[in-house]
Design a protein that fits this description.
By secondary structure, the protein is mainly β. It contains one helix and eight strands.
């Protein structure tokens, strides 16, 4: 059976979550794209999906900069437009590694927000920090 592309799978999952009454209390986000600093030969198209509960629990998956699937889970602390997500992520050199990502809402219109995250370099072989764009509903 052929695999659905990651983005299509994420969109189908988002539609399923939106149809669930309990999911209306949280935030659904789409991972979109990244910019590496300094620029290397990394994947900058990073489709994915995440869910953040009103209590702050966060989980998601995306196509990472190494062209692998990453899954993560953790907790997000929010202060107005600013947030920090801490937890663990898979899909890189280590089987599981720490995740600490600050972010800011750039624009919010009628329940849809554009969020920009700063992802610091964790692995020695990845010589870039990352700016990552997401859209939240």
């Amino acid at each position: 059976m052929p695999r659905l592309p990651l983005l299509l799978s994420c969109l189908l999952a988002a539609a399923g979550l939106l149809a669930t009454p309990s999911a209306r209390a949280g935030t659904i986000g789409l991972h979109l794209a990244s910019a590496h600093m300094p620029e290397r030969h990394f994947n900058n198209t990073n489709p994915g999906l995440y869910y953040r509960s009103d209590e702050g629990w966060t989980a998601g998956a995306y196509r990472n900069s190494l062209r692998r699937t990453s899954a993560y889970a953790g907790y997000t602390w929010e202060w107005g437009r600013l947030a920090v997500t801490g937890g663990a992520v898979t899909g890189y050199a280590e089987s599981v590694q720490p995740l600490l990502v600050p972010s800011v809402v750039l624009l919010s219109v009628q329940g849809v927000s554009a969020r920009l995250a700063f992802i610091p370099r964790v692995e020695k072989r990845i010589e870039s920090h990352v700016l990552h764009l997401m859209v939240e509903f």
